Each structure stands twice: as C-alpha cells, then as structure tokens.
C-alpha cells in the first residue's frame, strides 16, 4: 500500500463519519461538497472533513481507494456511502438519519 492509501485508510477507519471534500466544512470550495456539508450539519452529524485540495495525490488517491470517480465522498464506519447525489437522495427519503443511527453514529435530535 502506498503512503496516501495508508493515510486515507486510517482516516476512514478512525473516524465514524468522514467526508472527503473540496474545501472545509466551514468553507466548502465546490457546490457538490457544500451540499453534503449542509445536509450533515442539518441532521447534526459529527463528522471530519478532509480537504482533497490540500494534495493532488490525495485527490487522486481517494478515487482509487473507493473506485469512485468524483468528490465529495462520504464514509461511515469505514464504509463508502456515496457522493453528493446519493447522500442527497438518502437525505430526501429520510434514510440518511436512519442509516447513521443504525450504524451507531450520534445524530442530534435522533437519540
Ligand atoms: N454527481 C456527483 C457530483 C460530484 C462531482 O461531479 N465532482 C466532480 C467536480 S467537483 C469531481 O470530483 N471531479 C473530479 C475532480 O475534481 O478531481 C456526486 O454525486 O457526487
Ligand atoms: S470544483 Fe467545479 S464542480 Fe466541483
């Protein structure tokens, strides 16, 4: 495994919810990443944002890690969930909150 893969793997495995994104949760640099940030903030999930714009290697490495061609990428409990479209669809169907609770992730107001 390359260094970048080890780094990605450790972020994915050591954070219950991690969003690989462009920019930061406080300052998203792309609308797709911004949408996922808004949804996670709205449902009150605790998550870590990892900015792929910090490193070209990371930006490429995350696509290979998940075999998914775009950013953002959301991971929950070590599993790839999806990008912006999937997250938005799950949220709109009311499934994202249920999914997080089932995974044992704390969500504000959904105890
Ligand atoms: N439909 C995608 C939208 C995300 C997307 O198209 N991302 C593009 C533009 S930000 C991307 O990551 N392109 C490759 C790159 O910028 O490295 C989703 O559901 O997440
Ligand atoms: S950075 Fe241009 S669409 Fe995301």
UniProtKB/TrEMBL annotation:
Keywords: 2Fe-2S, Iron, Iron-sulfur, Metal-binding, Redox-active center. It holds the Pfam family Glutaredoxin. The keyword Acyltransferase does not apply. GO terms for molecular function: 2 iron, 2 sulfur cluster binding; disulfide oxidoreductase activity; metal ion binding. The keyword Iron-sulfur applies. Residues 17-81 form the Glutaredoxin domain. It comes from the Bacteria. InterPro entries: Glutaredoxin, GRX_PICOT-like, Monothiol_GRX, Monothiol_GRX-rel, Thioredoxin-like_sf. [2Fe-2S] cluster binds at residue 30. Belongs to the glutaredoxin family. Monothiol subfamily. PANTHER family: GLUTAREDOXIN FAMILY MEMBER, MONOTHIOL GLUTAREDOXIN-S14, CHLOROPLASTIC. This is Glutaredoxin.
């Amino acid at each position: 495994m390359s260094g970048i893969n080890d780094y990605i793997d450790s972020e994915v495995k050591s954070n219950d919810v991690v969003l690989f994104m462009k920019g930061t949760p406080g300052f998203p640099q792309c609308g797709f990443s911004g949408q996922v940030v808004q949804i996670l903030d709205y449902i009150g999930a605790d998550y870590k944002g990892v900015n792929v714009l910090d490193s070209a290697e990371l930006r490429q490495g995350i696509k290979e890690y998940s075999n998914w061609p775009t950013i953002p990428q959301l991971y929950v409990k070590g599993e790839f969930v999806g990008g912006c479209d999937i997250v938005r669809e799950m949220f709109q169907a009311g499934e994202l909150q249920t999914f997080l609770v089932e995974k044992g992730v704390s969500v504000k107001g959904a105890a």
